[in-house]
Design a protein that fits this description.
The strands form 2 sheets. A 5-stranded mixed β-sheet has the order 5-8-9-7-6. Helix content is 37%, strand content 33%. By secondary structure, it is α+β, with helices and mostly antiparallel strands.
Length: 167
C-alpha cells in the first residue's frame, strides 16, 4: 500500500530560460536560412544539418520536460525514482536510522539539483531548499528534496516504526 506519493518536475522559469535560449537562437537561424533563404552566418550549416540540430534540441527539451522525481513510501520501503534519468532506488525502511525534515543549500551542499553525490551524501532533488535527511545504520546519508518535507518525514518515521525498525 502506498502511504505517501509526491511527483516533482523541473519547472523553474530561470532554468527553462537557459534551456530554451539555444533552441531560440538556432530556430531563428533556421528561419532565416530555410524560410527567408538567407545563409545564417559566414559558413552556413547545410539545411538538413540545421533541421537535425533543431530537432535534436527540441527532443532534448521534450525529454527534460518529462523527467520527474517520484517519491513513494510503501508499507516497508521507500522508493525514489528519477523517471527517464536514473534507475529506481528502493530502500528498506528497516535500514533507516533517523529521519529529519531539513532546510538545505542545494548548490553549496550538493552542487545543484538532480541526483547528486557530495561529501554530505546523496541528494535526490528537483527544486527548492527543503527536504528530508535520511541517516542509515550503514552507508551514506540521503537527502530527498520535497515540497512537503514535514509530511514525508512523519510518514517515513511512522512506517519505519510499524516495520519494526530499531529506535
Amino acid at each position: 500500500m502506498t502511504h505517501f506519493r509526491e511527483v516533482q518536475k523541473f519547472r523553474q522559469p530561470w532554468l527553462w530560460a537557459i534551456l530554451l535560449a539555444p533552441l531560440c537562437v538556432v530556430g531563428w537561424g533556421a528561419y532565416q536560412q530555410l524560410v527567408l533563404h538567407r545563409p545564417w552566418g559566414d559558413k552556413p550549416m547545410p539545411d538538413n544539418g540545421l533541421v537535425m540540430l533543431c530537432a535534436a534540441l527540441a527532443l532534448f527539451l521534450l525529454w527534460f520536460y518529462s523527467v520527474r522525481l517520484v517519491t513513494e513510501v510503501r508499507d516497508t520501503e521507500l522508493i525514489l525514482h528519477f523517471v527517464l534519468l536514473w534507475r529506481k532506488k528502493i530502500i528498506s525502511l528497516g535500514e533507516i536510522r533517523s529521519v529529519e525534515a531539513v532546510q538545505y543549500r542545494p548548490i553549496r551542499d550538493y552542487g545543484g539539483w538532480g541526483v547528486r553525490r557530495s561529501l554530505a551524501g546523496w541528494a535526490y532533488n528537483v527544486s527548492g531548499n527543503r527536504g528530508v535527511q535520511l541517516k542509515f545504520w550503514t552507508g551514506p546519508e540521503i537527502l530527498i528534496g520535497s515540497q512537503r518535507p514535514e509530511e514525508l518525514a512523519a510518514i517515513l518515521e511512522e512506517r519505519r516504526k510499524a516495520a519494526g525498525a530499531p529506535r
